[in-house]
From TrEMBL:
Keywords: ATP-binding, Gluconate utilization, Kinase, Nucleotide-binding, Transferase. Its EC number is 2.7.1.12. The gene is gntK. The keyword Nucleotide-binding applies. This is Gluconokinase. It catalyses: D-gluconate + ATP = 6-phospho-D-gluconate + ADP + H(+). Belongs to the gluconokinase GntK/GntV family. Signal peptide: none annotated.
């Protein structure tokens, strides 16, 4: 069977890591944290409160794409986080990888800013959130995937995301335990 690939996209703080790990656990898929593929210079820049440019993001997107290709080559279904704010970035991730679908987590800036403010030990400062929204191009109806609101609690957002993507956990009893 063809492996499934889900890329969880959206602005910083929208819950990509939280939801992607939830899907990975429930589905038994491999998971990668997109932030781990940033060159150190990108992390330093974001930590200093400076938004990344297209040039900064290019090597990062390539690395994430390479990781996905490795999973597919091994027949592994996978879920990976990557803000992929622009359609061009998502096109890079999809190019040559027909399995890719996007889960775009989204809500208004006020809600996400509050969650970022409460989050500890993360390099991304909440001051960068307005630039994330300014750069964001919403997932288009002609792109593969779904848009899900993140207003609900974590188990509900994970459940809504999986339903929207048509994903059923191999062991349905597992979901209650994890929720
Ligand atoms: N549905 C939710 N309800 C309440 N809090 C949430 C929800 N989803 C995520 N959070 C919290 O919001 C914060 C941001 O979530 P998370 O780190 O998963 O976002 P992210 O999109 O991966 O961020 P980044 O792109 O900056 O790495 C975390 O502290 C997380 O625990
Ligand atoms: O494209 C970007 O501007 C960045 O990559 C960010 O979105 C971060 O990777 C991440 O969200 C940090 O928390």
């Amino acid at each position: 069977m063809e492996p499934d690939v889900v890329i969880v996209v959206g602005v910083s703080g929208t819950g990509k890591t939280t939801v992607a790990t939830g899907i990975s656990t429930r589905m038994g898929w491999t998971f990668a944290e997109g932030d781990a593929f940033h060159p150190q210079a990108n992390v330093d820049k974001m930590r200093a409160g400076v938004p990344l440019t297209d040039e900064d993001r290019a090597p990062w997107l390539r690395r994430i794409g390479d990781w996905i290709s490795e999973q597919v080559a091994e027949g592994e279904s996978c879920v990976v986080t990557c803000s992929a704010l622009k359609r061009d970035y998502r096109d890079v991730l999809r190019e040559g990888r027909p399995q890719v679908r996007f889960l775009h987590l989204h809500d208004d800036m006020e809600l996400i800013a509050a969650r970022m403010a409460a989050r500890k030990d993360h390099f991304m400062p909440p001051t960068l959130l307005p630039s994330q929204f300014a750069t964001l191009q919403m997932l288009g109806p002609d792109e593969p995937g779904v848009v899900v609101t993140v207003r609900d609690d974590v188990p509900t957002v994970i459940r809504n995301s999986m339903t929207a993507l048509g994903l059923t956990p191999p062991d349905p009893a597992g979901e209650e335990v994890l929720a």
